[in-house]
Write a structure and sequence with these properties.
The chain is an alpha+beta fold. Helix content is 43%, strand content 25%. It has 2 domains: 41 residues; 183 residues, Thrombin, subunit H, CATH 2.40.10.120.
Amino acid sequence: MVKTPATTEHHHYKFHRKHKILFGSFTTIVLIFIILSSTAFYMLYIKLDSHYNELSARLDSMQKDTNSKLNDVTDNVLATQAELSFIQDSIGKTEETLTNLNLELGELKASASSDFSDVIENAVPSVVTIRTDVAQGTGFIISDDGYLVTNAHVLSGASSVYTINFEKEIIKAELIGYSGDFDIALLKIPGSYNALSLANSDDVQVGQKVIAIGNPLGLQFSVSEGIISAVHRPGINEVNSYLQTDAALNPGNSGGPLIDKEGNVVGINNFKIGSGEGLSFALESNYVKDVVNDISQTAMNRTLL
């Protein structure tokens, strides 16, 4: 059978229509896929954006919390440093207070008669008996290399001078020089010794306790106790340079030290008024220092004290 043109055209029409339907269906499916995919991607984007915002919010919150905690830690560290500084200051003040208390306790102990024993024990080895061919008295060491002082009148008329120390050793002494106005003589003995320290006599107060160490009437290393009755009393030289004390002084005490409760020399025992009781006098330590330095400068071109 031979196809006619009409039949052929009808066949082509059906073929094109079928393809159009298939193409339209495919296109529709693609569009639907694109729409669904876009919707899905959009929903995924919305979800991811929401998660991102939530995560950012959490990070901001964590950062703020961390900063707050860091500030708290910093404040705590500063507060701790301040507390440590306060504690260190308190410890320093406490140590200073304890030191002052110990000094006050030491002074209080030494101010009692029964507790002068420590002062005496430390001072006596630095005191010597002065013996000449005509008299005797007392002296005390003022430098570690053996310089000592006594009253000049103890040496008056003597041709030789010896010292007797606490160990009963007899040692020949050399006269360096003397001052007649202040009745001070400077001597030198060989050897090494523990010297007594001179106090600032301007700090001496009326009423404070003192002890005198000497050799009254030949009784070596005797100790008498008293108080300072007055300061800056005039002496034979008419200079207001003497301490008045009621500590007992007798022949042989001349040239010995008058010692305070701290173990320092406040004066050199010099004379007493025989017609009265408890009227003893000692040249103030500041004058002793000045006179000794004048003597040593003149004799040796050297300052001792």
